[in-house]
């Protein structure tokens, strides 16, 4: 049957990601309307984005700790995560301000069963050319995350209802059509004690630092880009995140298969950091809109490659523990900059505030370049072609 081949399966998993990930910024996009109707404070509006990040991190750790990926079929997890996130989003408008943050936390928790599981399914179909395949998956995540920006002209209840409906549609698609590939393997056991060994190992530590630099920038940029563009009077959020981001994710995957993960991650982060710094000078000029497109592509081009790089330098017996810990910590880092950036913008204005985001990718690029020397002959794949 044609749907059991790797190409159609990649397309199906990508479709599920697009539909389910529309939940991520569904509430964040309509915060101005929520503040007006519900009387939310500025901090309460910021909290609606932060709690999704923290919910995702918690969901990732809990899933790994109870070995959920091996207790349930992956297509069931995809469907359950999509449906649970949709239910939380459907409940959001009628629940009121008091339940807003807990429901967004639950949404992030549910999405921890969507993106990581989808990544594992894709890897099981693509023992080779994983960079390209994962680039497609990250492109789907990017497009889904950008969809609320495309819908933001409607009433805020309509935006949330559409996002929830899209996520709910993902559930039957995942349950009936998505299947793991021939290279599906049981998850390595969760072993918290390995975290100490992981922290002591220079190669693993550097990959994590590179990922943290990437996460310092990514979600804060995505969360606050509409506010930045509104202040600048130029650019478009959906085009920058959705269109340019998909192109960047696909290109990053192809280049990683050809030139190696460390080269691509370092180049993408340096480009992204440069865009953040140059945006200060480009503010108010015709150069800002095209610069934002380059930034939108570069900020996500490396995203899929950090997990692959860590899996190559970690002890294979505990790769699951390493990947979960890195992912969870990265989303906590992202919550910090989501909190800091608007506060800084209140003091300096959006033009200068976004320069804060460049700190992460600059340090992350240095870390990923250093991975080559740290890995050495132990893991040659991480320094060249995977």
Shape: globular
Query: What fraction of the residues are assigned to beta strands by DSSP?
Result: under 5%
In the CATH hierarchy, what is the class of the largest domain? Mainly Alpha
CATH architecture of the largest domain: Up-down Bundle
Derived structural class: mainly alpha
The percent range for helix content is: over 70%
Number of domains: 2
Number of strands: 0
Calculate the terminal CA-CA distance, rounded to whole Å.
30 Å
Which regions contain 5 or more consecutive residues with pLDDT less than 50? 377-386
What is the gyration radius calculated from CA atoms? 20 Å
Examine the coordinates and then state which fold CATH places here, giving the name of the CATH topology of the largest domain: Growth Hormone, Chain: A
Mean pLDDT: 90
**Secondary-structure element order, N to C:** HHHHHHHHHHHHHHHHHH
Note the total helix count: 18
Major beta-sheet overview: none
CATH superfamily of the largest domain: MFS general substrate transporter like domains
Transmembrane segments: 45-69, 76-93, 105-126, 133-152, 158-178, 206-225, 237-256, 322-341, 353-375
Membrane topology: Multi-pass membrane protein
Protein name: MFS transporter
Subcellular location: Cell membrane
Describe the model.
There is one protein chain. The chain is mostly helical. Helix content is 78%, strand content 0%. The protein is globular. It starts with 5 loop residues before the first helix and ends in an 11-residue tail after the last helix. The C terminus is likely disordered.
